[in-house]
Each structure stands twice: as structure tokens, then as C-alpha cells.
Write a structure and sequence with these properties.
PQQ biosynthesis, iron, PqqE-like, nine-stranded mixed β-sheet, TIM Barrel, binds FE2/S2 (inorganic) cluster, iron-sulfur, S-adenosyl-L-methionine, 9 strands, binds iron/sulfur cluster, 13% strand, alpha/beta
Length: 355
């Protein structure tokens, strides 16, 4: 068994923004149930001990934790490369300085739209864009590398060329253009977020042209929406293969959305070591490799390339986490995606909120 390369540490579900595309579960974890600083430090030590190289500090909004500097320090002390995934609205120059001194290696800053009104409508927070622009400046001034993360969907895809301009203006070295993936709140708001085929094709054209024009200045990553695909994504590089996540309350998960699958019981860091969770738990072993696969994945030439797609999407769309991901054209459920696209077009959405 190979070690996990990366740990997603979901430090908290608290967040000043309320994005309707959030992949957090609809039932959010309250602050009182979150792991303590010391528990996170132990998680980082155990992650490094089993071979993990990097930690993505995420949420919710990780800087909503008052102990975020101590948490970064603990991850750095464990020898992990530290990436802060943030909305940026709680960052100031002093906090950035303390985070850098504690060992922060990289910042990934989200942006919801190109113009402030659109960004504030999607994020559900007044004044957010101005704060994000300041946060980008603080990151640059601290000498930290900056990636801008633009989650794109039906409501903001027309802004994509201007989002590329923002990445340049804010000094990002990398822009991640990520189409929404439909888990948690995003699945609930799918009708408002799913792009049309024409929108997707135009976005792909914009990304290809920008990559060419900005070669050497800006790296652009592109995550496409598999609702329009004929083959699924190799989600997480395969279940229990390269990645693990720890939820705010300490559940150890093969992916950030795994708790949406009924019937799986996940180990918790409060009573299991990370090594035991990774190597021995029933939840991690349930969809490892290819032995669990039914037809048409079983024996398919792509089985060790896409690992049958995404277990969470298979469960969300078919009620069976072991089914072939409906994003695959060979799935008997592939028609569900065309139906969802045909039904999409809602103009309103529900903001993420504690229930
Ligand atoms: Fe991948 Fe399964 Fe589709 Fe084959 S049948 S391409 S393994 S999802
Ligand atoms: Fe859970 Fe794809 S998001 S397996």
C-alpha cells in the first residue's frame, strides 16, 4: 500500500462567506465539535509518519480558527508542506506575517467573480472583493506564492476572461479555474450552477487561449465539469490511494465528501491512529483497487485509469456508492446527467448556512 501524498485538514466549517457551490456537507459541523490545536498537531505528526508530504489547510475558512498560527506551526514542525486555502476576508498583513513566520509555504485564495457586485452576490458577503484584493497584496508582500482559485459555474462563466485579468493584476503565479463539482451544498444548488454545453465550450476556449498568451507568466489549471463528459474523472486518484481528509470533528475520510455516503463508518482521530485508519479501516478498504467493481467497470480497459470515477457522485445520483459513476457513458445511469443539464437554469440559489 502506498502512503497518502496529501492531507486535507478541514479545520472548521465556520466561514464568513456563504457560497452556494460549497462542497461542505449540508449538515455543517459546529465549532464546539472541532478538534483542538493539540489534536491537530497529533494528526500532522501521524500524517508525516505515514509518508504524507503536504497538508492543505481548509474549511470552511481556516483563518476563522483563532489558533491558525499554532496550527500552521504544528504542520510545519511535522515536516509537511503547508498550503492555506482561504477566502482571504479575515487576513491582514500582521496575520500573514505571523503565518509566514510559523512556516506557511503557500496561499490559495478564492475569488467568486470578477466584479465586486457579482462576487458579493455569490459569496453572500458585502465588501468581500476589496478584502480579497488586499489579502492578495499581503500575500505578495510577505513573499509567499499565491494561487488564485476561481470556482466557475452557470452564474459567473461569462466573467472568465476578466478573472484571468484579476489573477495577473493580483500577482498570482497560478490560476485554478475549477468548474463546480456537485457535492454537499453544490449538489443542492445544482439547478442554478450547472453550465450549458455552450458555456463549457467557451470556457475551454478562453482557458486554452489564455494559457498560450500567458505562457511563462501565469500557469492555468483547469478542472472540467464531468456532467458534460463521456468518461469520469479519476476521483482522488482512486479511493484510499493518494489522499486523505480529516473533517473538523476528526473523522478520517478518503475524500472530502465521503460522509455523504450512507452505510460507511469512518474512523475518528480521537480513537484511531491515522495509520490504522489509512491501512486497516473498512471505510478506506471498501473501494480500494478494482476488486469491488461491478460491471461495466469490472474488466474495463480504463479501470486502473479512472478507478470507476467518483464514489460520492455514484451514491448521490444512483443511491449506490459501488455503481459506475454516471459520468461514464458506459454507465446505465449516464442519462441522469443529460436530464440534470436539461433541467438546470434556476436563477436563484440557497446560500450555505448552518442548519
Ligand atoms: Fe471507467 Fe468504469 Fe467507465 Fe470503464 S466502465 S471507463 S472503468 S467508469
Ligand atoms: Fe468522494 Fe469523489 S468526491 S470519491
Amino acid at each position: 500500500m502506498k502512503p497518502p501524498l496529501a492531507l486535507l485538514a478541514e479545520l472548521t466549517h465556520r466561514c464568513p462567506l456563504r457560497c452556494p457551490y460549497c462542497s461542505n456537507p449540508v449538515a455543517l459541523t459546529r465549532g464546539s465539535a472541532e478538534l483542538t490545536t493539540q489534536e491537530w498537531a497529533r494528526v500532522f505528526d501521524e500524517a508525516a509518519a505515514i509518508g504524507c508530504l503536504q497538508v492543505h489547510l481548509s474549511g470552511g475558512e481556516p483563518t476563522a480558527r483563532r489558533d491558525i498560527v499554532e496550527i500552521v506551526g504544528a504542520a510545519h514542525a511535522a515536516g509537511l508542506y503547508t498550503n492555506l486555502i482561504t477566502a482571504g476576508v479575515l487576513l491582514d498583513a500582521a496575520l500573514l506575517g505571523r503565518l509566514k513566520a510559523a512556516g506557511l509555504d503557500h496561499v490559495q485564495l478564492s475569488v467568486q467573480d470578477a466584479d465586486p457586485a457579482g462576487a458579493e452576490r455569490i459569496g453572500g458577503m458585502k465588501g468581500a472583493q476589496e478584502r480579497k484584493e488586499s489579502a492578495a497584496r499581503f500575500v505578495r508582500e510577505a513573499g509567499l506564492p499565491l494561487t488564485l482559485n476561481a470556482v466557475v459555474h452557470r452564474q459567473n462563466l461569462s466573467s472568465l476572461p476578466r478573472l484571468v485579468d484579476i489573477a495577473l493584476a493580483w500577482g498570482a503565479a497560478r490560476l485554478e479555474v475549477a468548474h463546480v463539482q456537485y457535492y454537499g451544498w453544490a449538489l443542492r444548488n445544482r439547478d442554478a450552477l450547472l453550465p450549458t454545453r455552450a458555456q463549457l465550450d467557451e470556457a475551454t476556449r478562453v482557458v486554452i487561449a489564455a494559457r498560450e498568451a500567458l505562457r511563462g507568466r501565469l500557469v492555468i489549471d483547469y478542472v472540467v465539469p464531468d456532467y458534460h463528459a463521456a468518461r469520469p474523472k479519476a476521483c482522488m486518484g482512486g479511493w484510499g490511494s493518494a489522499f486523505l481528509a480529516v473533517s473538523p470533528s476528526g473523522n478520517v475520510l478518503p475524500c472530502h465528501a465521503a460522509e455523504s455516503i450512507d452505510g460507511l463508518v469512518f474512523p475518528n482521530v480521537r480513537d484511531t491512529s491515522l495509520r490504522a485508519a489509512w491501512e486497516d479501516s473498512a471505510a478506506f478498504n471498501r473501494f480500494r483497487g478494482t476488486d469491488w467493481m461491478p460491471a461495466p467497470c469490472r474488466g474495463c480497459a480504463h479501470a486502473e485509469r479512472d478507478w470507476g470515477g467518483c464514489r460520492c457522485q455514484a451514491f448521490a445520483l444512483t443511491g449506490d456508492a459501488a455503481a459506475t459513476d454516471p459520468a461514464c457513458a458506459l454507465s446505465p445511469h449516464h442519462g441522469l446527467l443529460a436530464e440534470a443539464i436539461a433541467e438546470a437554469g434556476a436563477t436563484t440559489f440557497r446560500y450555505r448556512e448552518f442548519g
